[in-house]
Amino acid sequence: MATKKSVGTLKEADLKGKRVLVRVDLNVPLDDNFKITDDTRIRAAVPTIKYLIGNGAKVILTTHLGRPKGVTPKYSLKPLVPRLSELLGLEVKMANDCIGEEVEKLVAGLPEGGVLLLENSHASTEGVAKYLKPSVAGFLMQKELDYLVGAVSNPKKPFAAIVGGSKVSSKIGVIESLLEKVDLLFLGGGMIFTFYKAQGLAVGSSLVEADKLDLATSLIEKAKAKGVSLLLPSDVVIADKFAADANSKVVPASQIPDGWMGLDIGPDSIKSFGEALDTTKTIIWNGPMGVFEFDKFAAGTEAIAKKLAELSGKGVTTIIGGGDSVAAVEKAGLADKMSHISTGGGASLELLEGKTLPGVLALDDA
């Protein structure tokens, strides 16, 4: 995929007095009183907005340029205006609609260095990019592309991927794509039981995708053929039910008794995974090692988060590729220690799978 133009290539001459439409992700959690509980995404958009207003642009912010689902968001963006204004150091104006006379008036009256936030709208990035030139990536998207596309296509080796999550079916594309590039592949989470079962092991009442056993076998064979070290956990933490207060014990992966289910990787696996990760230079992590929502089964996921934070400090490139791993790293309070945390959700998975995204392709090439 061609490198895309970033907002940093636009200078004052390009921006002063110009109206700039910026697609931002302001999907932040609010409590019952509409107070923001985590402003990470708002803060992530600030560098791009500050750069634009610092160069005299008239900035118009819009949120939903994602894949239009045709849903009317039940929340207004109003509760975000005070925090956004505080972070930018200026009063952000708010339009109650995304089109119409009121918006036209507000846009017309927007001063250089002013910011206007449109109420939830539903154009698509791809659609807007066709009509507006230049179309460039913001600093956040630029970083996302640098890491998710750059690191994967040209990693410092040894390159490792850690893939977790409950189902192998949702990660097939990622695993297959990564097998072409990595030196080591670590598997964790619910998907490992499909691999164990494919190898003829008893898995008790653990989660298994019976229709994916052949696929698991073929992925193991593909790893062998490509010389990729595929590491499956040697021991697991099992539970007698799927609950936070279940009885639990550690057993070797080959000795899961009937009626018990695996909900995390065990201490031996944590140790051997850690030792193998110590040898690497680039690590991409997508998906938890266990049911980390239950404290009793969060040890594996927390240990991987801590190990990656430690290796980051030693100069290893650590990329948290979206989804539950991001939540896990944030829960462990280690987000600021990683090289890059992907905020792209499902889109980051597609980038890792080597797919091209229409909203990215529509941007101008560098």
UniProtKB/TrEMBL annotation:
Needed co-factor(s): Mg(2+)
Q: Which domain of life is it from?
A: Eukaryota
Query: What Enzyme Commission number(s) appear in the record?
Result: 2.7.2.3
List, alphabetically, the Pfam families matched.
PGK (PF00162)
- What residue range is the signal peptide? none
Which keywords describe this protein according to UniProt?
ATP-binding, Kinase, Magnesium, Nucleotide-binding, Transferase
* Keyword Iron attributed: no
Reactions catalysed? (2R)-3-phosphoglycerate + ATP = (2R)-3-phospho-glyceroyl phosphate + ADP
Family recorded in the similarity comment: Belongs to the phosphoglycerate kinase family.
Q: How does it assemble?
A: Monomer.
Quote the protein name from its UniProt record: Phosphoglycerate kinase
